[in-house]
Design goal:
Strand content of chain A: under 5%
Protein name (chains A, B): HTH tetR-type domain-containing protein
GO molecular function, one term (chains A, B): transcription cis-regulatory region binding
Pfam family, one (chains A, B): TetR_N
Keywords (chains A, B): DNA-binding, Transcription, Transcription regulation
Largest interface: A-B, 27 and 27 residues
Oligomer: homodimer
Structural class of chain A: mainly alpha
Order of helices and strands of chain A: HHHHHHHHH
CATH topology of the largest domain in chain A: Tetracycline Repressor, domain 2
CATH architecture of the largest domain in chain A: Orthogonal Bundle
Largest sheet of chain A: none
Number of strands of chain A: 0
Distance between the termini of chain A: 68 Å
CATH superfamily of the largest domain in chain A: Tetracycline Repressor, domain 2
InterPro entries (chains A, B): Homeodomain-like_sf, HTH-type_TetR-like_transc_reg, HTH_TetR, Tet_transcr_reg_TetR-rel_C_sf, TetR_SbtR-like_C
Mean pLDDT of chain A: 90
Helix content of chain A: over 70%
Chain lengths: 189, 189
């Protein structure tokens, strides 16, 4: 098989998969998890029911795949912010602010609780923890952040503190939460 | 019916109820939720199966009642610490430390996730939020804590930050977490 042909098949599969994820997320958001069926998803995606079953066994597995894609989009977004130029304090603040807004926009709902059971969430949390940890260690070396507590512990503190953004009523409150969290990271007086 | 008689019945009921809760918690801790039956619970508590069913319909409801009792014990413990004499900073630190240790000792397990679905947990969280909020407002008035962020938002920050204690490996790490959280609450430089 020439390479172009394989690429095209792969591309086609990816496109069908992505369209299925988008359709399912939209249907669940509009009608709730309980009322969405594989038949509906196939119809709205514009593919046959038999084809859909070649990709996914049930609605839950589609949603899990959709969520895994979302989590990866968020991680890539945060990694891009981390890799901006600028001093470490500014980059840390930007990453923590972005993470706080992700928490703020994705409130704890039953659906979130269901989706967060997946292994991919634990994996993403570890990746996020590791890269926040790197920023904190860099900040401790340059003297802009505290160095009396290990960077790993400070990262655990940050990521838990910022989940509070899910219970805050406004974007302004989320920004204040980030400021308070950052205050905890500065060198002690 | 003379009052003494009613009291005795009430006391007897409370004793049976408490014994049932203790037995069930011990059995579930030893053998896991799935393998504990009402028959076992009745036998270990030393009451008849029919009597047990007059108190509780199933194992889950016993566990929920046990957890509600535990949560109330924790709340009372925290309220006692809050009501100690001493300045507000010291009392806040004592309350936050105690709360962090509760989180540290009760790691997130499947059982915890199950039990935390109950309304009583949300109610206890609100009570705790309110009384931490009162301490923070008092601290802001006396100048020992920041007053540029509302006490309610700071309480939300604290309680989320301290859930990190559940992922920390040692008591020393929990104490550092409390120190970092408190640093976020001091008046900004």
């Amino acid at each position: 098989m020439p390479k172009v042909w394989t690429d095209t098949i792969e591309e086609h599969r990816r496109a069908v998969r992505n369209a299925t994820l988008d359709t399912t997320a939209a249907l669940v958001a509009a009608h709730g998890l309980a009322s969405v069926t594989m038949t509906q998803i196939a119809k709205e995606t514009g593919i046959g029911r038999a084809t859909l079953y070649k990709y996914f066994p049930d609605v839950e597995s589609i949603l899990a795949a959709w969520h895994e894609r979302q989590v990866n989009v968020h991680l890539e977004h945060l990694a891009k912010i981390r890799d901006h130029s600028g001093d470490v304090s500014a980059r840390l603040e930007a990453v923590l602010t972005a993470y706080a807004f992700i928490n703020h926009e994705h409130h704890d709902t039953q659906l979130v609780a269901l989706l967060h059971r997946g292994d991919h969430v634990a994996r993403a949390q570890r990746q996020l923890h590791d890269f926040v940890c790197d920023l904190l260690a860099e900040g401790a070396r340059t003297g802009s952040l505290r160095d009396d507590v290990a960077a790993g512990e400070l990262a655990t503190f940050c990521l838990h503190a910022l989940t509070a953004a899910g219970s805050l009523p406004s974007k302004a409150a989320v920004r204040r939460l980030v400021a308070v969290t950052l205050a905890g990271l500065r060198p002690p007086r």
